Amino acid sequence: QQIINAVRNTQYTAGGTNTDTALKYATDTSFTPANGMRPNAAQIAIVITDGQSQNAGATAAEAKRLRDKGITVFSIGVGGGAKMAELNAIATDPDNTHVFVVTDFDSLNQIKGSLQQRTCNVKPTMVAATPTQKLCGGQADIVFLLDKSGSVGQPNFDKMLTFVRNVARDFNIGPNDVQIGVDTFSTGFDHEFKLNTHRDKASLQAAVSGVSYTGGGTNTGDAIKFMRQQSFTANSGHRPNVPKVAIVITDGQSNNKALASSEAQKARDAGITMLAIGIGSGVDDAELNSIATDPDSQNVYKASTFDALTGLQGYIAAKACDNAAPQPSANPAPAQTCGSKADIVFLIDSSGSVGPNNFQLLLNFINTLVKDLDIGQNKIRVGVEKFSSRPYNEFNLNRYDNKTALMAAVS
Q1: 18, 142, 236, 322: most buried, per Cβ within 10 A?
Q2: Residue 300 in 3-state DSSP?
Q3: Which residues form the VWFA domain (predicted)?
């Protein structure tokens, strides 16, 4: 009841359409632990607007920054003033499942079912884990392909190994669970250890710590080739019908981009899901995209520095787990439902072109969505931010744990 009341209290303001500042506020303020964001919940932003922003370039840049934080962004355009190119620039890829367009505010309810279903399908991208928690109840063969070229340096290479250990910590390691192998590359390629070399977490962690740094060039193409030919084979421990996942981590551009792209395509054609992580300003986004499995928005990751890798640990563990095959079980785990954890922030256009009557229709639409959600401290949380000339925070994710009060605050 708290959430319903909160919806009702949201006021119309009028003004310009500074969508970029609203997205920036969502990234820097709304989606933070201090304001209720939970690391083991799906993070979703729903942007609803009836017009083009006053700075399309800044809007696209801020939307990317929000997505890079792991937030799944849906955009809803209302009426003829909303520009499809900008809606696409705001939303998470693929656009056909994250962008909605309706003719007027009265028509918002026509997309209610589709929006609910698609938000329900969003999985958490950040995983809060303890070493004893079983996060991945399936089987996967995961190979890390690590750049140890001269530009990395020993201290940063050590940070990369720490990242690998931390990701591995979130899995059950063993011949019937997740297996992990490590390959490294610079000018040449080193098969550090096979998928089936280490059958328990302790020995795996020790082996990762023992991987040595060499320096050299950045021969990514040949490294991907050798990984495909040597690491994902029965001799190296790959198990039939178990998903294959490769995680490529690099801080620079390869010395042969065409080769890297073609070898990545061969790896994908061989059934290997390719995740690409680029570190620092020396990486080529186009090359990362050519290495990774589509969609790039879900399989390409960027870290500004090697220290920032820690912020990707949960994302990568969760993504690798998404690809894991479920283990045969007499008592399978129940399917995840919309009653599971999600943090949803609505960014709603309150500019002058909307008008008070349409703004009320927009609030009514949000309330119809909220009515069907399982609201609670350990379930779904909702925040609302409106924007016109500047963003206005109506309430944070952790403000309401009761549906009635939330809906009242919105409307």
Answers
A1: 142
A2: strand
A3: 1-115, 141-316, 343-411
Torsion on CA atoms 10, 92, 49, 348, rounded to nearest 10: 10
Q: Which domain holds residue 10?
A: 4-124+341-407
Kindly state whether residue 227 falls inside one of the protein's structural domains.
yes
pLDDT greater at residue 319 or residue 157: 157
pLDDT over 80 (residue 328) = no
For 199-219, write each residue's pLDDT tens digit: 999 999 999 999 999 999 999
Please indicate whether residue 397 or residue 7 has the higher confidence score (pLDDT): 397
Pairing of strands 325-326, 138-147: antiparallel
Provide the token pair at 173: 């390691």
Q: Is the dihedral of CA 118, 276, 247, 342 positive or negative?
A: negative
How many domains are contained in the chain?
2
- In degrees, rounded to 5, the angle at the alpha carbon of residue 54 between the alpha carbons of residues 389 and 343 is 65
Same domain, yes or no: 158 and 267: yes
CA 248 to chain centre: 17
189/289 same-domain check: yes
**The two three-digit tokens of residue 380, written as one number:** 């779904």
Verdict on whether the full-model pTM lies above 0.90:
no
CA distance 69 to 311: 9
**Cβ contact 168:205 at 8 Å:** yes
Report which residue type is found at 239: R
Asked if the structure places residue 44 within a domain, the reply is yes
Entry field: residues in the chain = 411
Residues 6+ apart with CB under 8 A from 295: 93, 94
